[in-house]
Design a protein that fits this description.
Layout (H helix, E strand, L loop, with lengths): L1 H20 L1 H14 L9 H16 L6 H7 L4 H9 L4 H8 L8 E10 L10 E5 L4 E15 L4 E9 L3 H6 L4 H19 L2 E3 L7 H8 L4 E6 L5 E4 L14 E4 L11 E5 L3 E10 L4 E12 L2 E10 L6 H10 L2 H12 L10 H26 L8 H21 L6 H12 L6
Helix pairs in contact: 1-13, 2-3, 2-12, 3-12, 4-5, 5-12, 8-9, 11-12, 13-14
């Protein structure tokens, strides 16, 4: 009885100091709570809000696989509770959109990119063969199509929403192809996207007529890359010829290696890169596009030449290239989520649970990035998800030790030691 009372007193003594050292924990949970208290989440009950704050912190602070069993080991809920909570829908788009407000600069674009997720098992929703960029071949597993906001000025991407790709059989049963499915995702979110940016950036796979039409249907513009053998025509600039028949529209085919400089204008010239732009007609899209030809140089010699385009005919060529190249930031977002927040560790089979898992994992990276922005100040240190994962894991363990051993972290000696422990294992800047 005496020992029990002593432990209880020690626990109370230690708990009152926990909030004084767990700045990382407080900061992350502060971000989450500030969003969940807005009017958009007024219909969410308090237990659900508590769970969301809890599970985001667990995803950020637990090292190793992030499945239901692992969450139970470190968390305060049972494995079944995690499963039940993951089955419930959550508006990740609204959450992330509110979370990154004030963080992303005015110069921004929406990026879209699918990502392959390895997955075993026969009964998992969406299981099929999908393209793996790492393997350079189709592989069995799952796929998500993710939308992100890319801060062009600061060269960083923030997750908005990920959608799991249905299997080929399911798409076929609805009369859809993979490309039309991707286009429908754009149409579904176009109204909200336009509040963020009117430019959607996607890689060369999406430079096809059905996808271009989906983007243009809602007055958005697509920036992408063309194949080197794309059929493009110069717009005829001359006057009326006086000959019979339709007026002349085109002045020959665009040959990327032999540009007609009376049509193209140089918009960027440096020892590493030259950019030429012109309005041309694209046969595949059956419309005019703004073509930007990027010539990459090394030691004064051309190494490669790529064709970028925008459906916005008023956009500058150097801006087209810059916006397209910023698209690669979404790849880093996937990389960080796969390496540090368990994107590949989904221990679930149902559509709802998988959707929650994928979006929670990617949203956790957003929380770490927001933490980084507030921490860096004028230091201009690059973002390292590995560092923040280490910090959060150290915080989790130190909080546990203080709670169990009733340590006062506020003595001069302990403050110094705790700070050293919080930084333990981080990569040197």
């Amino acid at each position: 009885m005496v020992n029990t009372l002593k432990i209880s007193i020690l626990s109370k003594y230690s708990n009152k100091y926990l909030n004084m050292i767990s700045k990382a924990n407080q900061k992350v949970k502060g971000f989450i709570i500030s969003v969940l208290q807005t009017s958009l989440f007024i219909g969410l009950n308090q237990p659900r809000k508590n769970f969301m704050a809890h599970v985001f912190w667990q995803i950020l602070s637990i090292k190793g696989k992030l499945n239901f069993l692992q969450l139970e080991r470190y968390g305060t809920y049972s494995e079944q509770t995690y499963r039940n909570q993951y089955e419930q829908r959550f508006d990740f788009f609204a959450f992330n959109n509110l979370l990154i407000q004030g963080v992303v600069a005015a110069e921004r674009v929406i990026a879209f990119d699918p990502s392959y997720i390895p997955k075993a098992g026969k009964s998992t929703y969406g299981k099929g063969k999908y393209w793996s960029g790492v393997a350079g071949a189709p592989k069995w597993g799952l796929e998500i199509g993710g939308f992100a906001v890319v801060d062009v000025e600061n060269n960083s991407a923030y997750h908005l929403q990920a959608y799991q790709t249905p299997s080929s059989l399911e798409l076929k049963s609805h009369g859809l192809t993979l490309l039309t499915h991707y286009g429908n995702l754009v149409i579904k979110n176009a109204t909200e996207f336009k509040k963020i940016s009117t430019y959607l950036v996607a890689d060369a796979y999406f430079s096809k007529a059905p996808f271009v039409a989906s983007v243009l249907a809602f007055d958005m513009h697509l920036i992408s890359r063309l194949r080197d053998d794309s059929v493009l025509y110069y717009k005829y600039k001359g006057g009326v010829t006086g000959k019979k028949g339709c007026p002349k529209k085109y002045d020959g085919r665009v040959v990327a290696k032999q540009l007609k400089m009376d049509y193209f204008s140089m918009e960027h010239d440096s020892p590493e890169l030259q950019i030429f732009s012109a309005t041309v007609y694209c046969k595949a899209f059956k419309r005019d596009i703004n073509l930007a030809v990027a010539v990459f140089l090394k030691d004064g010699a051309e190494t490669k030449r790529k064709l970028y385009f925008s459906t916005d005919l008023k956009q500058k060529g150097n801006e087209i290239v810059r916006y397209y190249r910023s698209r690669f930031q979404i790849e880093f977002l996937y990389r960080d989520a796969k390496q540090h927040t368990g994107l590949n560790n989904a221990q679930a089979r149902s559509e709802n649970k998988l959707d929650f898992h994928f979006n929670a994992s990617l949203t956790a990276v957003n929380l770490a990035k927001k933490n980084w922005i507030e921490d860096k100040g004028e230091k201009h240190q690059p973002f390292s998800m590995a560092n923040y994962k280490t910090l959060y894991n150290n915080t989790l363990m130190i909080e546990l030790f203080i709670r169990k051993f009733a340590i006062n972290p506020n003595t001069a000696k302990n403050k110094k030691i705790i700070q050293e422990l919080l930084e333990y294992g981080k990569i040197a800047a």
